Amino acid sequence: MSILTWTRMETLMKSDLSRRMFLGTALAGGVVSLVPVPALALGDAQATQLVDRVVADINKVIARGGSLSSMISQFERIFSNYADVPIIARSALGVDARRASSGQLNAYTRAFKSYIARKYGKRFEEFVGGEISVLGTRKLKSFHEVQAQVKLRGKAPFQVNFLVSDKSGQARFFDMIIEGISLRLSEKEEIGAMLDRRKGNIDQLIADLKTAG
Asked: 188 near 94, Cβ under 8 Å?
C-alpha cells in the first residue's frame, strides 16, 4: 500500500479516488459496536454484521439530508461513538505520540476526530444513490477483513476492505483499504507533514487541527 504525500492528497481530493476515500472513511465512522467480547473472539459473522450496519447508518444520514453542518455533525458523532478513534488518531501521529503527554494525546485525539469529520463529512451529498454490497469476509492474523464493493451513479464499481478487530474489548473498525490505499497511512502522511511545518510543535498541531479539514 503506497503512502500518499501531502501534494498527492490535495490532488486526490479533487478526483474520483478522493470520493472513494471519503466513502471509506464515512463507512468507518458508522461502525456499530457489539457487546464487549474477549480479544480474538470476533468471528466472520460479527465482522460482516458490522459492515452491514455501517452501510445502513451512513445511508440513513444521506437519506435524511439537511444542512452540510448538520451532516458533518452527525458524521462526527458516529465516528466518535463507533470507530476506534484513539487507535486511528495515534497511528496517524506515529512515533511523535511517544513524546506527547497524556493531556496532549487526549486533546489531539479530540481535534483529530473533528478534523476527520469536517474533511470527509463535506462529501456526503456526492454519494446519494450509491450502493454498497459485502463480498466476503476472511480472518487475517488477529483481525478480520471484510471486502465490499461500492457502486456510485455513473462511476465504475470499486472495492473497499474493512479491517475489524475486538482487541479493545469491543468490535471496532480500525482501518479501511480503498483500492489499495490505507486511510491510516494516508492520514499519517498528512499529519506528519502538518507537524513538520510546525517544527514538531504538538500543541500548535492540535490548535490547527481544530479548524483544518
From this structure: yes
Q: What's the mean pLDDT when you consider all of the chain?
A: 79
Place of cell 435524511: 64
Alpha-carbon radius of gyration of the chain = 16
The residue among 36 and 70 whose pLDDT is bigger is 70
Q: For 127-154, what is each residue's pLDDT tens digit? A: 667 777 888 899 998 899 989 888 877 7
> What SS3 class is residue 16?
helix
- Asked if pLDDT for residue 7 goes beyond 50, the answer is no
User: How far is it, in rounded angstroms, from Cα 6 to Cα 190?
Assistant: 6
Give me the pLDDT at residue 34, please.
37
Buried b / exposed e across 27-41, counting CB within 10 Å, b at 16+?
Answer: bbbbbbbeeeeeeee
**DSSP H or E run through 191:** helix 183-197
Please choose, from the candidates 79, 34, 76, 70, the residue with its C-alpha nearest in 3D space to the C-alpha of residue 52. Answer: 34
Domains and CATH numbers, the chain: 6-209 (3.10.450.710)
Strand locations in the chain, DSSP E?
131-140, 143-151, 158-165, 172-178, 181-182
